[in-house]
Amino acid sequence: MSAVATGSVAWSRRRLAFGRFWRDFRQHRGGMVGLLALVVAVVLALVAPLFIDQSVTSVVSGTGAKFAPPSLAAPFGTDESGRSILLMVWWGSRTSLLIGFLAALLSIVIGMVVGIAAGHFRGWLGATLMRITDWFLVLPSLITAMVLAAILGGSTFTIIVAIGVTTWPTTARLIRAQTLAVEARPYIERSKALGGGHWHITTRHVLPNVAPLLLASTTLEVASAIVTESTLAFLGVSANKTSWGTMLRASYDFGAATAGAWWYIIIPGLCILAVVMAFTLCGRALEAVLNPRLRKAG
Amino acid sequence: MTAPLEAAEPAAAQAAGPGDERPTHRGTLQYALSKAGGALFSIAMVIIGTFFVFRLLPGDPVRNLAQGRNMTPTQLALERHRLGLDKPLIDQFADFVGKTLRFDLGTSYEYKRPVLDLIGERLGPTLLLAGVGLVIAVSLGLWQGTRAGWRHNSRFDRVSTGVSLVLWSVPTFWLGLLLLMVFGVGIGPIPGIFPTRGIESVDAPDGFAYVLDVASHMVLPCLTLVAVVYAQYLLVMRSSLLEEVSQDYVTVARAKGLRDDEVRRRHAVPNALLPTVTLVFMRIGFVVGGAVTVETIYSWPGLGQLFYEAIRVPDFTLMQGTFMLITVAVILMNTLADVVYRMLDPRVRSA
Known about the structure:
Radius of gyration of chain A: 23 Å
Shape of chain B: globular
Oligomer: heterodimer
Mean pLDDT of chain A: 83
Structural class of chain B: mainly alpha
Shape of chain A: elongated
CATH class of chain A: Mainly Alpha
Strand order of the largest sheet of chain B: 1-2
InterPro entries (chain A): BP-dependent_transpt_permease, MetI-like, MetI-like_sf, OppC_N
Low-confidence stretches of chain B: 1-24
Domain ABC transmembrane type-1 (chain A): 93-283
Low-confidence stretches of chain A: none
Strand content of chain B: under 5%
Helix content of chain B: over 70%
Keywords (chain A): Cell membrane, Membrane, Transmembrane, Transmembrane helix, Transport
Order of helices and strands of chain B: HHHHHHHHHEEHHHHHHH
Number of strands of chain A: 0
Transmembrane segments (chain A): 30-52, 97-121, 142-165, 261-286
Helix content of chain A: over 70%
CATH architecture of chain A: Orthogonal Bundle
Membrane topology (chain A): Multi-pass membrane protein
Largest sheet of chain B: 2 strands, antiparallel
Largest sheet of chain A: none
CATH superfamily of chain A: MetI-like
Number of helices of chain A: 12
């Protein structure tokens, strides 16, 4: 009975907090523009199968001429096999966004677990975790991701792993610092005195406090994961599916620059740029709203 | 590239950090030694990690190394014996560590030559490109960052910050492709003005003309590298100068009657430089990633392209060798940055 009551109190408090957060977030024009662009991009990617399918990326289904400039039939021109760039970009957004989101998620989850553990457990465990984090931080991430992806073989899953495994250390450092700050507060001591174990303290007290920061850094992480995915694809380590990165790779391989097919190079690149900027704008706005340190300064 | 923008802050904080986690009043030498120990540990981890990661390869290592060439069972067994793959894992590991420490990185299957020789050949062009690129990026970034930070919210500040934020979001390789298209091949009525492949022309002349030839080949790769790298220096220099501007000592310097220029040059900039200089070294791994991409696009015969070729073939011995070399170089640079920062900044030393 009382548990239900406290539960609803907590929920109404959370609803209030969310309302406050939304009010603050709406103040950031850049953040709103970014959010809008993201919603559009995600919805487009999700509804793509209702209108087109895998066949738009098949080399034999291209109906246009080779490197045809933008026209009514193919508004963004065609590629080396006469496929429509517009449809390719649309279909490719699914791979790019999927890898971007999942790789960021993996990176954030590893960073969160390591960061909270390193901040919560002092002594040798925390010190060892920090050593490992620092070691990963020093590794040149693109090079390491290339090696991992090349070794594990190109598939959507391995690309996600390669990006996730090489990008978590910055999150871990951020979360550790926040964990240390949270655990210095008296209510953690109270919780310990009342018999709260490691699991209780980290999941019920630390995690809700670092969650806002995690949200902001996830958003920024997705942006960089999308760039990394496209760079890996361009450097020949791809999931063998059409994505914006593999399209740019093909434009390079088939000499689109020499053939004057500027649309083949410009369009997929602009897609990457737009999505990345949208995520960055959103992430910066989230950071400004959620990070108490920045809020005070601003 | 967006990731290092966020990474910049923790990196700078980390650079300033060691002071507050370590016992006070340690000599710089002792500090350098402990950092060197840390670096050695990291390098050891890289070697161990490389061994085990490359053993993760699915399938038969000999077949992997031979890239699916047809081989008879006898040949396979011979190869296995020659590479020591018929020994227990622990012996293989000991062999690998011993050879690596003697700088024996194995023989490339693709080139049929020792990996170390290949790396030696490719080192020069990479150092040239990355060196020139880094010098330009650092001077441009520091200069613009200083101007932007000193005249905070001026038009120059807004424009240069905006430009560098956009350059952040642009993937390196796409920028390279655009430059290649516009300046290399030419677009519309504009002809291509710069060569786009390699480091020298086929009929490269001698003497000073040769230098000019190489320089003209370097324009586009350098431009791409600089465009991507300089933004972070600009942003860090700007923000660290902004922090200094509100400090008391700057007010004092002004109160003394120094000209604005002198306050900036003699007081604010030297202090603001410290975190930025550290960052130059700290983010060297990022520059390396950029170099691989740039060298690939412009077929610049450097280490990055060698690494790319190793991935493309794939030639695992070559990949393993270049990966270890690049990583170790990055670790050494970072350690150097840690030590130099402490020597330069008395605040960290006495903290």
